[in-house]
């Protein structure tokens, strides 16, 4: 699948559909409007210049958000030096919604997550194209 930011300055190509789409409600994700599909770095090709932002309200932010400097579209996030692993989140809103039809949508209670437990306490909210709209 290939997606772009609004002005098409950034292109993101992923090797496959995400297993699910995560709608996190933490203060950062809620404000940047991300609907996250999770990938390893080898599954994603990013072309074009992005700008980045790390939240300043916590000492060790887990992710660095990337966005287009021209149109402002949130494109993806990468893990910071405070986290281990090979994972990045791609804003699946960059893709045509039809390509995600049937993918499960989940929520993460990010506003109440302290980081002391795994962040896998999610609940299904439907499938893209049916109960959930991206």
Q: What are the segments in which pLDDT stays under 50 over at least 5 consecutive residues?
A: none
Count of alpha and pi helical runs: 1
CA distance, first residue to last residue: 16 Å
Rounded average pLDDT: 87
Count of extended strands: 11
Instruction: Give, in spatial order, the strands making up the sheet with the most strands.
Output: 4-9-8-7-6
Give the helix level as a range of percent. under 10%
Rg, Cα atoms, Å: 14 Å
Shape: globular
The portion of residues forming beta strands comes to 35-45%
Main sheet record: 5 strands, antiparallel
Q: Could you give the order of the helices and strands?
A: EEEHEEEEEEEE
| SS-based class | mainly beta
Structure description:
With 134 residues, the protein is mainly β. 4% of the residues lie in helices and 38% in strands. It has one helix and eleven strands. The strands form three sheets. It has a five-stranded antiparallel beta sheet with strand order 4-9-8-7-6, with no helix packed on it. Strands 1-2-5 form a three-stranded antiparallel beta sheet, with no helix packed on it. Strands 3-10-11 form a three-stranded mixed beta sheet, with no helix packed on it. The two termini are 16 Å apart. The model has no long low-confidence stretch (mean pLDDT 87).
How would you summarize the topology of this molecule?
Layout: E1 2-4, E2 11-14, E3 20-24, H1 27-32, E4 36-39, E5 44-47, E6 50-53, E7 63-68, E8 74-79, E9 88-91, E10 104-108, E11 122-127
Parallel strand pairs: 3-10
Antiparallel strand pairs: 1-2, 2-5, 4-9, 6-7, 7-8, 8-9, 10-11
